[in-house]
Structures are given as structure tokens and as C-alpha cells.
Amino acid sequence: MSETTHGGIMGGIAGRVPKFIRRADPAVLTAFACIVVLLLLGSLYSRNFLSPEYLLQQLKVASFLGVIATGMMLVILLGQIDLSVPWAVAAGAMMACAAAAYGPIGVALAIPFGVLCGVAIGIVNGIGVAYLRIPSMIITLATNAVAQGLMVVYTGGFSPQDSATAAMRYLATGFTIPGVPNAVIIWVLIGAAMVFALTRTSFGRAVYGIGNRERAAYLSGIDTRRIVMIAFAVSGGLSAFGGVLLAGYASKAAQSMGDAYLLPSIAAVVLGGTSILGGRGSYLGTVAGVILITLLQSILSVMQMPEAGRQIIYGVVIVAMLLLYGRAPASR
Amino acid sequence: MKDWRYRLAEQRGTLLAFGIFIVMFAIYSANHPAGFTANVVQTAANKGVLLAFVAMAQTLVVITAGIDLSVGMIFTLTNCMASWLVVGTGLETAFGVLAVLGTGLICGAVNGAIVIYGRLQPIVATIATGAVYFGLALLLRPVPGGSVNEDLADFLTGRFFGVVPASLVALLVIVLVVWVPFSRSELGRAAYAAGSSETAAYMSGVPIRRGKLLAYTLAGLLAAIGGLFLTFFTYTGEAAYASGNAYTLFSIAAVVLGGVSLFGGKGSAIGAIFGALAFRTIGDLLFVFDFDPLWQPLFQGVILLIAVSLGAFALFRVRNRLEWFL
Questions:
Q1: A219: chain B residues, CB-CB within 8 Å
Q2: Are B150 and A323 contacting, i.e. CB atoms less than 8 angstroms apart?
Q3: Taking the complete model, does pTM exceed 0.90, yes or no?
Q4: Does residue B323 belong to any structural domain of this protein?
Q5: How far is B96 from chain A (nearest CA, A)?
Q6: How many angstroms separate the CA atoms of A96 and B6, rounded?
């Protein structure tokens, strides 16, 4: 008797909730709800917080993190992680700027060359993870250290050119469509390509399959090692491209410019509801996570919070939100 | 298998790390301009002991099949804290040391609680707590500075009887007081069992949660001891992001060199200590061979890359391809 009543009530509630909310991932909804809360809090603090100019500026800043987080998400969906982001970002930026010193051909090839350096770092990661079966956390830390060493030797031996080319500045700060920064357009394009790859191609199916259980994916005829390898190469390339854009935004490349992007890119992906264990997550969630993190950083800097307070709040918020909805299942 | 052969196989990683260290140190001291003197040994010991403490901390967590990416930041935080508190009279200094060690314990326990009771992945949780610890360190020391009780510092970084480096003796004492009791206790075995197979350990009624919590907590303590020694060597506190990150990275390298399995359940802190000393010696080899110091980060990175790739040799023993996927 009591059981049927219970079921009836549950059915009644479910019936009243609109379909698109019932189908959505609760984590993505929570992330968007947090964005709204942050915007409201910000508007209490300052009036211009809800102005279109400010929001567009935030979106532009978010797009750099968005490009980097896109690659990170692909790797996390596989159940791996890419800790080589800091120096892949720096290497992409520094190599692109350095290539520009070699005449007009160098200027023309600066951006592809920077991205290629990131792809190279990603390929080393991919070989280590896919073929040598080294835990991704370890091999990516090691390639990060090697990339750092290479950059230190390179900049220390002779000073390369470190100012961004006109093309890089145009990509990061220019306007092709009036009112919409180019960086945002680039993020939209890369995001659309990623959504297409994840949902409409066999590559995307394979990524989710490997993330759930690599053994099963292998037995169903997927060349899992090749997929993992490609994912790491894409992640390295996107990190380096993010670095190229950042160099264009700041009009120069610096050694430690990537350090500030490791934790945010992982946090954006995980806060967006992608399981850190792999196999589950949507790109919409990552978009929400990126915007959430950017807004949080922006509010903290508008409030003129010193660096120390920013780090503390940042870490606490991430742990708190993960405890809210990123926990592993309790069953054994 | 006979008893002694089983025990030898269990200690293989540790013995290998010991061997690497001896060979590297022999090359180092043979080519050092000053030769094998008490001074050279003391300097090398003081540099190596810092990494050894952090590597021991990392070992405790890695044994439970976790990872602690905040050890370097706990190390930095306690360094900043010690530069405020470990000063003044003997009693004040003693309280300062206790407060610093207590902070390390709390940091470790917070990591453990979030990972075990919060059920978050160790890697994400400790990156986030690492940001918090670094923020606290920056709060304490926005600019490098501070001081330390120099009598205590000189005593612990000098030499006993003119030959034995005091820092090595301190390391030995910590091993005897922290590591040996832990690894022989019921909770220590629980930490090993949890790393080896959490499900099997749970089914056998092993107290895995308490074992893991103790491992994370003691890791915080050991990182704090490292931070305390850093203050003794430098006489100041500095919230340096790059240095904290480097110690985290090097601790993982030391653990791998020391034969501790990153998949958990295998290895010992003794191995990690020799791994740390070997890693430091390899890094310093560049100096005795008169290379440009610019090459040091690259050299250390390549060594790290080679060290972690060595594990891939296990692939040759795989008979069934499905064993690739753990």
C-alpha cells in the first residue's frame, strides 16, 4: 500500500518537471545555477557587472581557458589526465613568437609551428600512455619537466624574439564580426568541432567507450591505443594554441604564462560534470565550468582580493563544489 | 620460494635504489674538486635530506594507490610558518616546532578526509588543497623574510663529531620514529592492503579507511619536517610557487626511482629516501662536470622521463594483451 503511494507521488513529480530539465545532467544544471548566483552576487557589488561590455570581455578571457579545457576534457573523458598543460601552453606561445624572427616565412608559419610543438609534446604523452602503459599522471608530469627544461635552455642560450606577430594579436584581440571578439569565435568553432567529434563520429564513441572500460572497447575492435594517442596529441595541440592566443592577447610570450592554467582547466572540466574517472560528460558542462571559473576569478579580482586570498577561495570553492556533485559512488 | 629469497624480492626496489645512489655518489665525489671530504658529504646530505623527507611523505600516500600533489605546498607552507614561529627562547622554539608539525598533520589529515570520506579523486583533491596551502603560505609571507632560531638550525645542519652530518642523523631518527612503527603496525598494513586491492582488503575486514587516513596524515607530518629543515638551511621563509611545485614533481621521481609502485601496495620509504638522494646526486653531477646550470632543468626532466619509462619493461612479461588494461 505505502509503496504504491510512494511510487505514485514520485511519478507525479517527475511528470510535472519539463522534459529538458529531467534529461539534463544535474551537474551541468548546478554549474549554470552557480553562474547565475555569481552574476547576481557580482551585480550587488558593482552595477557594470551585468553590462554587455563587461560580459563580452569575460567571454573573451574565458575563451583562452575554453580552448585549453577542450583538450583537457578529451583526455579526462578517456579516464586519463594531462598535467603537461603549463609548459605546453608556454612552449606553444614561445615557439610561435620565436618562429616569427625568421623572416616573412617564419611570420606566416608562426602559429602552425607553435601548435605543432604542442602536438609534439602531446605525442610523447600519447606514446607513454598508450604504448608504454605509463600512468598518464606521471608521464605528463615528466614531459612537462622536459618541456620546461627545453624552454629554459632555449631562452637562456640566446634571447629569441618574444613579441607576438600581428596575426596572433588579431586572433586574440581583433574583431571580424563587429561586437564579437575573434577569440570567442575561435572558441565557438573549436567547441563545435569537439561536439561534432564527440557525438557524431566513431572517434567520439570510441573515446566514451575507452573511458568506460578500455578492455571492453579493445575487445569490440577499437584500436584503443591509437585513439588515446590522438587524444593526447589533440590536447597538447590545443594547449599550445591556447598559449598562442594568450601570447597574442598579452602581445608577448613569457616562461611562466601556463602555470595559471593547469588547475583551472581541470577544475572547469570536472565542475562541468565530466567524471574524472572517464566515460561520462558533455561539452556543454565544460562550457559552463569554464565560464564559472572565469567569473569567479573576475569577481575575486574586482573585489581586489590579494593573490593569497584568491588561491585559498579558489581551492576551497573547487573542493566544495566537487563534494557537492563530483563524488565517486559509495558502493564497493 | 624460500623465505630469504622472498624477502630479497620484496626489497629489490630498495636495493636497486641504494645501488644507483652509491654509484652516482661515487662518480660525484670522485670528480668533485674537493674530493670525498666531510664538507662535501655534509653539503650533499643537507640538500638531499630535504627531498628525502618530501619523498617519504609521497611514499606513504602512493602506497595506498593515491597521490599527493600538495606535498610541495605543505612543504612551502610549513617553511613560511617556521620562519615566524621557530624563534626566541628554547621553550618558544619548542612550541614553534610543535605548531609547525601540527600544521603539517592537519594539512595531511584534511587531504585524507577529503579523499576518503569525501570520496574525491586524490589527484584533483590534492591539486585544489595545494592551492589553498599555497595561498596560506603567501598570506604568511607575501615577501620572503623571517628568521629562525640559529642555534637549533646550526645544530641540525652541522656535523656530529666533525664527520657525521647531523641532517642524516635526523633523517635516521625520523625513519625510526615514524616509518618503522607505521609499516609494522596494523594500520600500516591496512594502508598497504588498501593500495594492493581495496576490495579484497575491505572484504577481509581490514580497517582501510583508518589506514589510509593515517597514511595521508603522516605524509603531511613528514612534509612539515621537510619544511622545518628547509627553514634551518635557509634561515628564511619564502612562498615560492615554482619551488613548491618542483618538490612535488621531484618527490614523484624519487618515489619511482626508489622502487615504489605507483599502482600502490608495493615499496618502502627507505627506497624512496635512496631514490631522493640518488636523484639529487644525479642533478648535481652537472656541476662537477662544469656544465652550464641552464641545462639542469632539462637534465632532471630527462632523468625523470627515463625513470618513469623504465616501468614499461614490465610489458615484455605480459603474455595476454588484455593485461595491458588494468
A1: 322
A2: no
A3: no
A4: no
A5: 23
A6: 55
